[in-house]
């Protein structure tokens, strides 16, 4: 038996890890059962830890227990397994390398360009350079780098690493991530290190209103090249005032949202000197997966009715443009990037843009923008984001690829005075390079396309942090990430990614315990601070770690974020009770009723169901808020019990129970709820607010609500992930399947029929085309249609559920315990189920006809026409 898929702290061979006591995970192959393991960890051949033969079937998150590790330690580890016959297998090797763990590991100094930034002025990309001679043959070399801004590095003309948009997105006021690169093979005797520094999240346009200078006026860079010579001596070349600087290179403008201006005629002169900058926070490792360039798309060329040239890349993505163009010096090309063509077939950016003041703006402007009072704004307005690439050619061939901008687009409007060959243009997707873990296919091609659309919306929005969309806002909206978590976790291994984002979420928590609505911090307090406590959004603080724990078996995540969770719990508890005195008086469960603060409510139901919202009034969201008070407090009670905090657990349980009573008192009349508004029925069912009798009645009412709308979808962000599960639980998977496969709007497949290649923000398709939240329905495809669920500790529950017009469906999930697959096919009235379970796991298989089998590793086939034997366990 042999270990495969070895990981350290959820990562494959991480370089620059920031965790001093890392945990090891693997999957098993070659035999049925792991009866023992042995881990050996070595540094430079010296054994630091030998676990010895441990009798255990455990294969995830086993902590290192050797002598303490230090910054820069490169640890080779190997795991040997024993199988069911106690036969010892071959050791399987892996490694990790620690980064710089302590503040005093940094001897380099923060540097910046030699100019005084002024308000309302944007600056070209800074270029820094140093030249040095290696004292002798280099055995090992590492570059550690970060920025307040975005950076990239070139060593002797070659790009260092492939991390895009480094150092990634955080609240730069308190947290800045560095990257570690192995540059051992890149050095010669004479060497040149060049670094570029752009505005990025730090100083460039951020969020819906393109606020600039969010974190500061002065961008800065910190880099440290560490050389270990063959003779054992070492040398550090760190940024400092010895670095040459200029900002006269080709990138004369670079903004994450607005695009780049690239003048191929320019090369940096490095005429000036870097200045020492005020230091940023002590850099830390992100322990996350790097964003990288991924799939590429070649365009087809369209000529619009007005005669414009538009490139269609066929897939809506978030990413870069790469092109190569032959021209004369000074010739220009302008590419504007957008998601859709308008009703006339013309290029447009209207669906992704908002107006913002051209000059820096403050609180009053913020207020006017947010309350829809744009007409009261003074001064010049401009649209944001611009998503525009301007290229000025040099003589001959100009090669270009975006460096410090990313756009959400499928189409490019091409203008300029030079002919470009579409064959030499590419759209390049950029996203966090997460391990792809989920596949789903079925006999319904439209459904399969919707699954791919959802996967593409995930790709388009998982760039170091989970964002709502890659165009208009591009912010780490908490609610979006929360509702999509389970779907995301089937598609890709998101353990490290969400651990990183949880740190952002904790960083963004206000002193009151209320989180901000977006993480990392994105300014605009009137919007994101005010709305941060919204139920369904704020609850990400509890629900994301909870789900990480359940899926990846990672209890440390609960521990790490428990203080933040309890702060949020305290915030909620201190905000219970009705707003109006009269309501409070008549409600015996007033102290467990929740409505205070700002709540988004269900959010983006089909238009007919949306509550009236105006600048002056918003509906009370007592129903949503009290429901989530129950739901989140129930989760908290379970977490507190797990962490052995009985007093907390009791208090959380009291609020969970009280909120349930309050909810029933306020909203469940005569044991049911009577409405066609699906969210009002789905929510109490899904969040566990109803007693069995009421649940049955409300479930029946939900079926009617769906049928009354011809099986179209009626929920918004919060309830969409739950609607099919609740129909299924009500015993009506037939209705769930009809809704799933419905091609009439509003529905998932209506989007596909309309030509969507990603998931729309709203059911009408009028806003962003790339919001993953409504794609959260895919969770049901994995956990119900194919029926794959993790039960923890090397166990699965597999309960496939054929239905609808589907004649077959098949899913694979590379789970933390290994690859599990579940497929079924119906032929002449007989359904065959094919299930494969990975080594060292077991599964409880529930078949639709009621049969229950516990199976071990390997392939298993069941048919609906085989004689049924009594259930065996
Ligand atoms: C929208 C965002 C996001 C949503 C919030 C409430 O503007 O795009 O998807 O969570 O508002």
UniProtKB/TrEMBL annotation:
Documented EC number(s): 3.2.1.40
Catalytic class of the enzyme: hydrolase
Annotated GO MF terms: alpha-L-rhamnosidase activity
Span of the signal peptide: none
Reaction equations catalysed: Hydrolysis of terminal non-reducing alpha-L-rhamnose residues in alpha-L-rhamnosides
Domain Bacterial alpha-L-rhamnosidase N-terminal: 138-268
Residue ranges annotated for the Alpha-L-rhamnosidase six-hairpin glycosidase domain, each copy included: 435-785
Residue span of region Disordered: 849-873
Residue span(s) of domain Alpha-L-rhamnosidase C-terminal: 794-855
PANTHER family given in the database record: ALPHA-RHAMNOSIDASE (EUROFUNG), ALPHA-RHAMNOSIDASE (EUROFUNG)-RELATED
Protein name: alpha-L-rhamnosidase
Taxonomic source organism: Microbacterium bovistercoris
